[in-house]
Amino acid sequence: MSEHIVCCHECDELVAIHHPYREGRFKCPQCGSLLFRHKAGMIEKMYALSISALILFGVTNYFPFLSFEVAGNISHANFFTSVLYLSKEGEYLLSLAILMTTIVIPLLRIVLFVVLFAPLYHRHIPSYATNVLKILEYSTPWGMLDVFLIGVLVSLVKLVKMGSIIAGTSVWAFGVLVFVLAYMQVVYNPHQIWDLIDKNRGDI
Amino acid sequence: MRAIECGLACCSVCHHIVKMPSSNKGVAICPRCNEEVHYRKKNSLQHTWALVIASIVFYIPANMLPMMHVHTFAGTQSDTIISGVIYFLHSGSYLIASVIFIASIIVPITKLMILIYLLISVQMKKTTNKIKRKKLYELTELIGKWSMVDVYVVAIMIALVHFGGLSEIKAGQGANYFLLVVILTMIAAMRFDVRLIWDIKEDNAT
Predict the structure, then answer these.
(1) Total CB pairs under 8 A between chain A and B
(2) Residues B98-135 pLDDT 10s
């Protein structure tokens, strides 16, 4: 299909796109908001990035994250032990929020990216693609690892005055993970996959 | 040409353009992803108002009550958001003070003020500054989650500092309320249908 009609989700304008597979950003002529962004080799890049994100997520959660020492006493924390400690202290709301926004939703999104792009890379559209795309769409704003990174930096500065703080292997893996996830968000173009699903249906 | 003028609606999940049935109340099922499609988000203004008002109510205890209590052998110190910022200003950490100040005070207030302005401007059927108002909306979506920084800071500090009588950090009630403010304002921004801004032109034209 050389011509393609897209509806701007900000101003409801119908926009004809003549070359949807030309690399670059497509903007609405009426209101200027971004319709979608196309990058060549999206599927290959997303496959590679999602696998590296999965590895980095594993490293982040397996190795010690931060250690804190005051007068010979030392305590360690990573994502999961923080959640456990908070719920033990009775801070259920806080611990639930941390659990969802820094563990469950980011991990779910990474795993879904892997199971979506692995078959796509091998030129096969999985039957669950529609549902996966839906969950990815709904969960976008709720993965907050990038915000957590700033939180880590702020608390490092706060704690430096109280004792000595040791950044574990995880912190480095986590820093890289945040950048990988941000780059994935730039490359990810669900329009292209919906088009593939449409074309596939046309064949049947 | 706008989609609503052609009897078309854009699926909010997969952005498929769906032909809307003329008889029904403007509801259809998207043939591509099986989600319900509406011309506009249902009861968008009411829901956004409700969430905005709830956020304002929660924002008061979030600022009045302490975010965390620091127990050391020298005594207990309780910090609210503002007193935390002032503490950092005094101790010379201007960068951290400004990060906390922007994330916990400027961002939530800006977000609420923008949403109230957008709601009122849509209800008063304003036709000017559409692009500017759309940009303001994009801004609220963009900055929404960054207020979580302070909640994360509190959580990290609690998880790291627990040495009994020597030094211990506990969460204050303010942290819970602040968390609710962040979540409610995020949902409020999602519930607002920015296309309503552009719908007003048609009303005036006809």
Answers:
(1) 184
(2) 988 998 899 999 999 999 999 999 998 888 888 899 99
The number of folded domains in chain A is 2
Q: What is the pTM of this model?
A: 0.89
Please name the residue ranges forming H helices in chain A. Answer: 42-62, 79-88, 92-98, 105-121, 129-139, 145-160, 169-187, 190-203
Contacting residues of A for B152, CB less than 8 Å apart: 98, 102, 147-148, 150-152, 155
Contact between chains at B158 and A75 (C-beta distance less than 8 A): no
**How many distinct structural domains can be found in chain B?**
2
How large is the ipTM?
0.88
Within this chain, do residues B26 and B116 fall inside the same structural domain, yes or no?
A: no
A10 and A52 within one domain? no
Judged against a pLDDT cut of 50, whether residue B89 lies above it is answered with yes
Compute the distance between CA of residue A148 and CA of residue A151 in angstroms, rounded to an integer. 5
The Cβ of residue A92 has, within 10 Å, a number of other Cβ atoms equal to 11
CA distance A83 to A91: 9
Tokens of A45: 């890049």
- State the smallest CA–CA distance between residue A49 and chain B in angstroms: 23
Contact between B12 and A9 using a beta-carbon 8 Å cutoff: yes
pLDDT at B26 over 80: no
Range of the domain at B14: 1-39
Cα Rg of chain A (Å, integer) = 21
* Of B81, B157, B146, residue with least CA distance to A147: B146
- In this structure, what DSSP letter does residue B4 have? G
A82 touches chain B (CB under 8 A): yes
Interface of A with B in 103-132 (CB under 8 A): 130
Report the alpha-carbon distance of residue B51 to residue B44 in Å, rounded: 11
Among the partner residues A11, A81, A158, nearest to B198 by beta-carbon distance: A11
